[in-house]
Fold:
Amino acid sequence: MPQVKAAPALVSRPLPVPSVVCPSLVVTLTARRLRSHGHLPSRSHISSCKELPSGGCKELEMSEYSAHAYGENAVAEEQEEEDGDEEGEGLGWSKDEIDAISALFDRPMRQKPPKPPNPAKHRALPLPLPHKTRLPAAPAPKQHVRLARRASLSSRAPFSDQVRKNPEALVGIAREIGALPPERDASAVLNRWARFLRKGSLSMTIRELGHMGLPDRALQTLCWAQRQTAVPLFPDDRVLAATVEVLARFGKLKVESALEQCVPTASRAVLEAMASGFIRAGNVALARKLLELARINGRTLHPSIHVKLMSEAARTPEGYGLAAALVDELGDRPGLEELRPQDCTAVMKVCVKLRRYAAVESLFSWFKESGGSAPTVVMYTTVIHSRCRDGRHREALALAWEMEQAGCLLDLPAYRVIVKLCVALGEQERALRYLARLKEAGFVPTGDIYDSLIEGYAAEGRLAKCRQLIRDAQSAGVKLDRRLISRLSEIGSGPSY
Structure:
């Protein structure tokens, strides 16, 4: 039962104490007016019940003892009510006063300005690591890398599936074959794994043998697969294409005389593997002949083969003519939608070497309009470099801003091209800001970046800035151009080495 506090002026006179106190007592006090506590009700009942030894309970009701005391209380109450009415009439508010008070509440309350953060307690964020902040639109990895990352092999799958679909097991077979002594054949290892292998499994093993520089072991693996009858592993274009590529890469494929007979009958995968092997071996003439025979016989190869061949031919000035012819052929052939972003970038780099800057712009516009993936930072960098070589520095700077607005994460070649672009425009301060961003991103500036900045400040006559950049490069362990340092030392602006 909730407890109610008794008012101090509840009774005008002290109550007499009863001579006998009952163990169980219910007291009901009635008051006409509670002067000190106006929030309590006009009648207040305070009850208390306690058990008697005999189990009985009595109730006592007490009020004012005399009528005289009751009359005095009534008169006092009436006097107080009249006084309260007079005070209420005198405290009335006029309409203007009420409007003035309401206007005070309508004003917006002034708020305390936020406290600035304490720089001593602020912890700076760590610098982004370049290898962890690469763009997701990177060149597609190898097929076995995708398979290795994909957790598609369950522990409950048959052991044969865990071998023939597991890249680690297939690469392990190649390492076991590579560890054999020269006098032993590759069949000594393959016989133990024969019952777990299926068609196409050995293609990865053969490519791994090619990475290990063992073309003879790759040929022995192909011959062993041809002899299997219990579990047929051949004919298989994947195994044959992998073997042909490895043999062509190491010059072990003797098909020059029979190339005309092979092209009409061989599959597309085998022809592309043969061309890739010739290109990786540096045999540009034989790869060019293979492409010509494929065109004559109406065989269509992937455009990436043309891209690989023109990139290999453009390595030396002697191959610029062949590279230009391949660029024209690639522009005339259909099926350019199969080109990947890295293929388009490779063609752009070849066109920059050939000084065919219009072809770079045309290919870049076609790639953006094709609706495929967005241009990568490598493609943007190549086009910026092309415009710089063509003398269109303002357009190159606009493309650099477009690249940053697209959210591309700049890499070291991109920073290097943009710094050289700013120096060519005479904006050395902007180039210094990009140099600071390069360092914040975790890259180490190269010598040609410092050389470009030093040359730009030297052209303006700011020799003190040149000395500061030289000291920064020396502290970072960057090797500068000796001819530039000697030229600066002659005019007294830098130390001589």
User: Anything to note?
Assistant: The first helix runs from residue 67 to 90.
